Amino acid sequence: MANQLDANVKDDLKTQFVTREGTYRLLTLSEYSRPNRVGYSNNQSSPQVRVSFVTLPNPSSKNNSEANVAAPQTAAGTPTTSTSSDKRTQLNSNGATTSTTTTTPATPTTTATTAISTLNGGGAGGDSNYNGGSSSTVDTRLGGGISMHSMTNGGVLDQNGLPTNQIYGGDRICFNFGRDLYVYAFRGVKKGTEMSKPIDKKFYKGTNPSCHDFNANAATPSGAPLLVGFTTGQIQLVSPQQGPRELRKLFNEERLIDKTKVTCLKWLPNSPHLFLASHASGHLYLYNEELPCAATAPSYQPFKVGDGYTILTCKSKSTRNPLYKWVFSTDNCCINELCFSPCGSNLALVSQDGFLRVFHYDTMELLGIARSYFGGFLCVCWSPDGKYIVVGGEDDLVTVWSLHERRVVARGQGHRSWVSVVAFDPYTTSYTNWDGGDFSDDENQLNEYTASREDRFSGDSTANGGFEGFDKNSTPLHTNRTRTHSASFRSDASSAALAPDKLAISYRLGSVSQDTQICLWDITEDVLRHPLTMRQRVNSTQLNDSSFLNGGLDADGIKVIRPVAMGQPSNFADSSSCSPIREAAGSGVAGATEHSNSSSSKFSTANCTISSQSSNANTPPDESCDTETATPAAATAANTTSSSKANSRSHGNSNSIKFPNCISATKSDSIDSSGPRVSNSNYSTSGYNSKNSNSSTKSNSNAGSSSSFSAFNSLTQRLTNFSFLSNSDKRSSGIGYEGSGSTAANHRQHRKAMSMLKSYNQHNHSNHSNNNRSSNNNSSSTSIAHSTAVESGSGAAIGSSATAHSFGSLKLSKSSHNSSLATAGQSSTSVSSYDPMKLIGTPACPRFEECPLLEPLICKKIAHERLTALIFREDCFLTACQDGFIYTWARPGHSTHVAQHMSPSQTTPTGGTVI
Amino acid sequence: MGANVSQLEREIGSELFPPNEHYFGLVNFGNTCYSNSVLQALYFCKPFREKVLEYKAKNKRPKETLLSCLADLFYSIATQKKKVGSIAPKKFITRLRKEKEEFDNYMQQDAHEFLNFLINHINEIILAERNSGKTPAAGSSGVPVLAGGAAPGNGNAANAKSSSNSNSSNSTSTSTSNGNCSNSTGSLSVLDGSGSVTATTTPIGQTNGANTEPTWVHEIFQGILTSETRCLNCETVSSKDENFFDLQVDVDQNTSITHCLRCFSNTETLCSDNKFKCDNCCSYQEAQKRMRVKKLPMILALHLKRFKYMEQFNRHIKVSHRVVFPLELRLFNTSDDAVNPDRLYDLTAVVIHCGSGPNRGHYISIVKSHGLWLLFDDDMVDKIEASTIEDFYGLTSDIHKSSETGYILFYQSRDCAA
């Protein structure tokens, strides 16, 4: 734990580093900053330097259609501008008329000096005459005593003067520094930057830009709408037009809606018009950029009251901005970042009060919360599959939260200061089957989906009615999407990963911190699967252990990740004795269908007790945790045919796992079971309840998770788990959990369950689900069948519940889990407390020693000032620093001098990360 | 007083102004900002203020001590008619200059040294008054002295420890470490690189067998560090407890206080001149040592060691490194047998050093009171936004000589606030 502390802090800045996939190199020529780099300027108290990135559509192929799309938008937008802000100089009036012409010298009526629009509809092919004068300079007064000086460059060309599509299409990068905002064409790893030629630079007076976001969905080859938020609360929308000018709108202009700093802006996924804005006040607002803001301070009425949050709507005859206002109950809950899940349906918020809140966006239901170990959460990111959320914050930790289980599953310690950005690297995150096509499917579905979302807000219908209508419409859509997905995933699965050494899904995570370091982390499934930690505090008796000294650095100085859940070599011997279970599980899975829990019915008594428990606890089929985690041990432990068979089978199983998260639990029911049965359950409310129930078993108490301990077959592991149990909850230490795994006697199980229940009653945590569990314990058997049915839906699972009955008292205790699952599911969204003193030791905030601790794969100091942004691209990643520099790091094999590797067709999703 | 003060009242707003709260600046008597800043920080450490006022209430006509002067000062602030203003701590300063020679001048003093002196001194006064017949505990005055060669027999130490635990606000002392608690030696007085002492401890309770009963100063500020030493020869692990009133941590550039605390508990190797006398081996051996927190105090005072002695300059220079401190803190460096390892702390006050060196510059303090952040600059009081605290983290470059940096952090345990 103290390993990296001893590393020399004063080591030089790294310009390259090595991971197992190769060498990452800093591209000194691909560096972005202010064009005029004056000497040192203190930017420390300025807003965080943030980076927005967008990839514009390719102009050559879709130019005409894009232009058509763009034109109406422009036409529609212009009147709005003119009416909404009379203070603003009307430089856009000419824009619409000149937009479709080529090389039209525009003469704006305002202060523009020379405005030669060098645009060429044909992708700037022949338009190679770059001249320095092709920029328009505009001085604009924005509302609230702030003004803007904007210089837009008409064209940027290749260094060689060759035709380039940088101006049309390509990538755009935007960053703020102090009072300034810059937009550059991002030229990737191939070419150096042209620092003197930003596409756009804006200098603000009276305010600082604090955040920004491109709308990739409304991007045209000439640019994408850019939202800019300010420290004084205003929000500016800058839309590109054909030509060197742009369309500007201002929201919250008079600061009537919120006076505090805009902390984060995000366009709704696949929405051209809707965006969310969070403020330092802790409030979150939904805007439609097509609608005007109310002329007076809006008055609100409650729209939805949830647990610890309230959603308000504007009380007005016509629909006005903001459409919704989200208010949270905790103090100091300045939202630091918000992030939509990859599928677009879930929203994660992190705030200064130390909370992660996850909502199903459309239903506005709270799906779960997590609490920092201490201090605020500063950043958030969804895993590419939407299963996990990673947050970073003022506890210097990277925290992994599972959406399925609604609990913190791991923490990463490696930074020396606050973690300012976390980002998954989808290109290095390795999947057992990943072909990159999944997202496109996703997006198609989403377009359809968002269309309905947009409809809701068009017109003057009250939000209320619109919402209901939407709810009816969207839910089927949602499930539709779900189905499509699972289908596509399953077909992927069939062709998937045959490599026998690809054992587990591994996520690559990057994080940057105020400590000027970047850390890369590999988060493997086996760690995430781990119910509770086996990590023990290094106590004095372990001083002899090498861990007291500083291990963990291998010869290259590369930090070796030591996922705590990895089986020790000594474990393998033990685990071999357990392999029959695994095989059984595997065959059960392979034999029955793709459902892991369906396998439970096939087990015989003793083993069944364990594995069915565990499979129930881990029900979501995309989890597959039991078999999968078991696999490494099995593979290494015994080379018998049986275990290898188990191995391959569990691969098949893990393939079927591959659901994107947001749909997961719902879909696990809806897909494989018949619809009606599901609708009996609490599915109808949010569709997440069943998922919840799983999580609550596993996580809400030690006891619940102990049921899934049995998924881990090594005796050592289990013992350590046990020792933890005694640690954290001394009362449950009488459980008698002697790692009896495969040979577990019934009475022992029974005793265990009973004592667990006892411990619930004594439990001090005011945890609803605990109460539920203990109360439901008596109601038992009748409800069991239902709950199991709800949970798994498949006939096989019902069989398992039937089996459960036959086990008598033993099963009764087991079924108390199941029943509690269902009930816990119902109360899942009710957060018992936002008090961090009560949350410690719960799934939302496990004690430090309760939670698996990750160590970074690498940890490198790469800047002198604190790092403020991290963006992963296919061939590179970008880091930004508070001193205003954005650095590009080429991935292995993508350095400048190997340009031949740069063909866009080359995709390296998994190639670089074969373990 | 005057315009500035009423402005504060206006800024806060009469309806938001906390009832029974007074924001009074302290007049500077010539470089007494080191005292003013610390006094303000202590005044807004609720448990401390309450105890001092309680002392005032109990001792109507006390003999004049530094504590009685402090109590008078606090009482005077707390009973002001006006809500804001300034007050002259004349009696206190006069007494302070009598009590301690080093402060009897108009030089700038080190705020931490003052804090250390004040807390220890108050503690002694309480002990002295408690055993008024007996002589007060022998000197912990002056520079912090380690309880280095404290009684090696573990009986005493264990007794002292368990009694202090049971009397403190924390529940259940397990004192499981009795077995390990042997083999303590004098090797704890290890000086770190810069020549200052790694941890301040007070000899009370260990050297003074008579005074094992903890005072309220103990209850508020005292924590226990346990130092584990592993002899590299015989692999025997010995551990030894010591009390502390505050933790002094080294600062690194671009780190957090969390990291500094973890470094504080880093393993260090005792070798060459600094070998460890192993009782088992009966000789000096190389050893590894680390210090972790075993009992977490109610108020955790963290002293950032920003004044480093530079031999080439023959003086202390200021280290303005940027060290961020969160508003909320838990400790990572707790020992395994710690009683309340996940105690949650809230930042309540920060003493800030402004300027370029230890003997020049200025001290101010920021405190949190009823959800408001206030900046006390001698007799001036201003309301500040919590977001401006980041201005006091420090500097990332060495270009600027002068800086305004957090110097002493006061974290208050949340469970004691309730």
TrEMBL record, chain A:
WD repeats lie at residues 370-411. This is WD repeat-containing protein 20. InterPro entries: WD40/YVTN_repeat-like_dom_sf (IPR015943), WD40_repeat_dom_sf (IPR036322), WD40_rpt (IPR001680), WD_repeat_creC_regulators (IPR051362). SMART domains: WD40. The gene is LOC108619614. Residues 70-84, 96-118, 127-136, 629-650, 679-708, 759-788 have a biased composition (Low complexity). SUPFAM superfamilies: WD40 repeat-like. PROSITE patterns: WD_REPEATS_2 (PS50082), WD_REPEATS_REGION (PS50294). Keywords: Repeat, WD repeat.
Automatic annotation (TrEMBL), chain B:
The gene is Dmoj\GI21992. Its EC number is 3.4.19.12. The lineage of its organism: Eukaryota, Metazoa, Ecdysozoa, Arthropoda, Hexapoda. It catalyses: Thiol-dependent hydrolysis of ester, thioester, amide, peptide and isopeptide bonds formed by the C-terminal Gly of ubiquitin (a 76-residue protein attached to proteins as an intracellular targeting signal). The keyword Glycoprotein does not apply. GO terms for molecular function: cysteine-type deubiquitinase activity. It comes from Drosophila mojavensis. It is an enzyme of class 3 (hydrolase). Residues 24-414 form the USP domain. It holds the Pfam family UCH. This is ubiquitinyl hydrolase 1. Gene3D superfamilies: Cysteine proteinases.
